[in-house]
Design brief:
This protein is of the alpha+beta class and 76 residues long. The chain has a domain at 19-71: Flavin-binding protein dodecin (Dodecin subunit-like, 2-Layer Sandwich), CATH 3.30.1660. It has one helix at 25-36, and strands spanning 12-21, 43-56, 59-71. The protein starts with 11 loop residues before the first strand and ends in a 5-residue tail after the last strand.
C-alpha cells in the first residue's frame, strides 16, 4: 500500500536469507532481519519459507530461511 503523499508506484526486490540461532527459530529469524537491515534499507516484509535444525554433537542450531522484500528507491 502506498504511503499518503507518495506517487503510488513502487518496485520491490525479494531475496532469500538464512538466519541461525542456538536459542530458537524466532531468534534465528530476528538475527537474519537485524543483520540484513544493516546493509539493506527499507526492508518491508519477511516471509518464513523453511524451518530446520542442524544437530552437531548433540547441540541444536535453529535455522530459518526467509524471503525478505525491500523497496527500490529512485532519486531521493
Amino acid at each position: 500500500m502506498a504511503k499518503k503523499g507518495s506517487k503510488g508506484n513502487a518496485v520491490y526486490k525479494v531475496i532469500e536469507i538464512v538466519g541461525t540461532s542456538s536459542v530458537s527459530w524466532a531468534d534465528a529469524g530476528a538475527n537474519a532481519v537485524k543483520t540484513a537491515s544493516r546493509t539493506i534499507r527499507d526492508l518491508r516484509v519477511a516471509e518464513v519459507e523453511q524451518l530446520d535444525m542442524k544437530i552437531d554433537g548433540g547441540k541444536v542450531l535453529y535455522r530459518v530461511r526467509l524471503n525478505v522484500s525491500f523497496k527500490f528507491h529512485g532519486e531521493d
